[in-house]
Amino acid sequence: EVQLVESGGGLVQAGGSLRLSCATSGFAFDDYVIGWFRQAPGKEREGVSCISSALGRTWYADSAKGRFIISRDANTVYLQMNGLRPEDTAVYYCAADVPPVQNMCSPPAYDYWGQGTRVTVSS
């Protein structure tokens, strides 16, 4: 059974940092793309950053470039978030699948999701 469990969310002031973790099990970790996605109230879920060991590739949303860093170690994927802004407030989800390269970080391309962890950035 595929399982993804996020942790590390919380309340932080603008300019602060958080590190999210996604512990995975039940699938061939190195063969899958693992992504971080977020959904703010009233907005669609969007890709934040995704990583593929098989392709040796990472992807970042424009809003994440220069501030967030995705990494993976053993069966866990991390999202280091620095310089947080109020607009980063959302529920953050990790997901796993083998999406087409052109949809590497597109939410509809993912079937396996965690339960989410809430990030709140105060101004």
Overview of this protein structure:
The protein is 0% helix and 51% strand. The termini are far apart. The chain has strands spanning 3-7, 10-13, 18-25, 33-39, 46-52, 57-60, 68-73, 76-81, 90-97, 112-113, 117-122. Strands 2, 4, 5, 6, 9, 10 and 11 form a seven-stranded mixed β-sheet that branches.
Residue share in helices? Answer: under 10%
| Number of beta-strand segments | 11
In terms of DSSP E residues, the strand content is over 45%
Helix-strand makeup class: mainly beta
Q: Can you summarize the main beta sheet?
A: 7 strands, mixed
Order of helices and strands: EEEEEEEEEEE
**Number of helical segments with 4 or more residues:** 0
Low-confidence stretches: none
Silhouette: globular
Q: Gap between N and C termini, in Å?
A: 40 Å
Report the average pLDDT across residues.
Answer: 96
| Spatial extent as radius of gyration | 13 Å
Summarize this, please?
0% of the residues lie in helices and 51% in strands. The chain has 123 residues and is mostly beta strands.
Q: How is the topology of this model organized?
A:
Blueprint: E1 3-7, E2 10-13, E3 18-25, E4 33-39, E5 46-52, E6 57-60, E7 68-73, E8 76-81, E9 90-97, E10 112-113, E11 117-122
Parallel strand pairs: 2-11
Antiparallel strand pairs: 1-3, 3-8, 4-5, 4-9, 5-6, 7-8, 9-10, 9-11
